[in-house]
Amino acid sequence: MKLKTAVLLINLGTPDSPSVKDVRKYLFEFLNDPRIIDIPAIARFILVNLIIVPFRAPKSARIYEELWVNNGLPDGTKGSPILYYGKSVQEKLQKALGNDYDVYLAMRYKNPSIDDVLSAIYKKNYEKIIVIPLFPQYASATTGSVVDKVMKIISRWWVIPEVKFISQFYDDEGFINTIIERAKKYKLEDYDHLLFSYHGLPV
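Above: the chain sequence. Below: its structure as tokens.
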């Protein structure tokens, strides 16, 4: 019997809801990651928990409320766009890969948590796990944090399968062609410039 491979897609994260309470929990977990704010632990604790989170959570909650999208459910329930589209990518990749793979989705911060998803993966005794942080270019605060978290969890397993990380894909032909195909939907000659925007770039 051929053992399946688990494919784990991991994105940054999302609050469970746009309420101030849930946004506060999300920011607390996110900003207390030493790879996000690289300063001594005591200074980071004071900065994040006494200054940034109390003031930023209410403002961010209002923005999340505007961004929440319709999940397509009969009751009109709205949800996190990063989770909604993440699940869409998960489903499409599962269909493309077929029965030899099981595709999972997790978030680095909040839910579905890496801890819970890896726990489910562990119970199925996969021969191989492919981890894909959904960030095109490597950065310590994104891909680095994901790798760090995943390895801390897997290192506690009694039986450790083969683990492969796709640490970056900015130069992958398929990724580049996807950007090109999206650009072709517009009349580029009508624009003075074509701008590629990134969250951050290494120095």
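The beta strands are 5-14, 69-70, 78-79, 101-110, 128-133, 162-165.
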